[in-house]
Model the fold of this input.
Amino acid sequence: MSKEMPFLVYCIEEYKAEKNLTGKEVISLFRQYAVCEYIKSFYEALHTTGKNYIVEDIDLYIRSRA
Done:
């Protein structure tokens, strides 16, 4: 397993909890906007931040692609 995978799962779970979404809804949203690829690409920068920053960053990324 890559070092990014546990972090990706963490991001999904935190986003799900913060936005009060189901896992299925988060996965659908992340697939639609390629969020998983974004998280993997920027793992080195993102994994050192807190959950609030991560959720906010994901929101900004989705808005920029919408």
In short: DSSP finds five helices and no strands in the chain.
